[in-house]
Amino acid sequence: MTKKTFLGVMAVATAVALTGGALIASNMGFKLNYTLTQPLSGGTGDTGTSTIALPNFRQAGLNNAKDLMDDIGFANVTNVQKYLKATASLQVYTGRKNVGGPNAFSLQPGEGYFVKMNTTTNYIVVGSHNPGQTYNLGQPLVGGTGDTGTNFFAYNYHQTAADAKALMDDIGFVSVTNVQKYLKATASLQVYTGRKNVGGPNAFALTPGEAYYIKMNTTVNPYSPSHY
User: Fold this and answer.
1) Are 120 and 202 within one domain?
2) CA-to-CA distance for 203 and 100, rounded, in angstroms?
């Protein structure tokens, strides 16, 4: 099914203006114009890497990292990266022979990804929300593994939590250590803990299209996001 056909069968009702893209949404589906930008020159930390959150129900044929690169525009994308919770590392797929892993990892509901671009592209994301979708946000594992209890979460397009504090409250505040936002301009992380004198004092806004790190101290399974 093409994007045009997919959009034609969705009932889309509400238009909302958002920083970094425009979202058209309803309780059935959405279309998001999400800008993925190339690296900046001049010694900044911007490497052309953005986070991306895909919908629970993606368009047909968008199943793995190679499909995502093709959908964005293969020549425009350097790589797609998946966060591996068990080792706190990144799995890189380039789609190029002898560069990066040979296998295109599958795309899963609730997982965020990094997309590194070499050309700025306005990527049209389409999909629909599954109000019954739940997620496993796991605490740290013991025994010398790299698992710090950090999950890379695809912020839900129909989620009511508008900022980092609201997301922590929705999950269960005492279960969450912090929420982290990737800052593209500096290739660094902004950390919000919600605790006095620990981390930044302000709860950053959550934006459809972006993914966020959620560090847990207690497993919440299932987590069912509040949604409209």
Assistant:
1) no
2) 36
* Phi and psi torsions of 74, nearest 5°: -50, -45
C-beta atoms surrounding 48 within 10 Å: 19
For residues 9 and 103, state if they share a domain.
Answer: yes
Pair type for strands 77-84 and 89-96: antiparallel
Give the whole-angstrom CA distance, residue 57 versus residue 161: 20
pLDDT in tens, the chain (228 residues): 445 333 433 433 333 333 344 444 444 577 899 999 999 877 678 999 999 999 988 888 999 999 999 999 999 999 999 999 999 999 999 998 776 667 899 999 999 999 999 999 999 998 887 778 899 999 998 776 789 999 999 998 889 999 999 999 999 999 999 999 999 999 999 999 998 876 667 899 999 999 999 999 999 999 999 988
122 and 26 fall within a common domain: yes
Same-domain check for residues 110 and 140:
no
Output DSSP code: residue 142: P
Structural domain boundaries enclosing 167: 135-223
Task: Give the type of residue at 39.
Answer: P
* Pair (113, 146) in one structural domain: no
Q: Tokens 């080792």 appear where?
A: 87
Check whether the bond before 140 is cis (ω within 30° of 0). Answer: no
Can you give the length of the chain in residues?
228
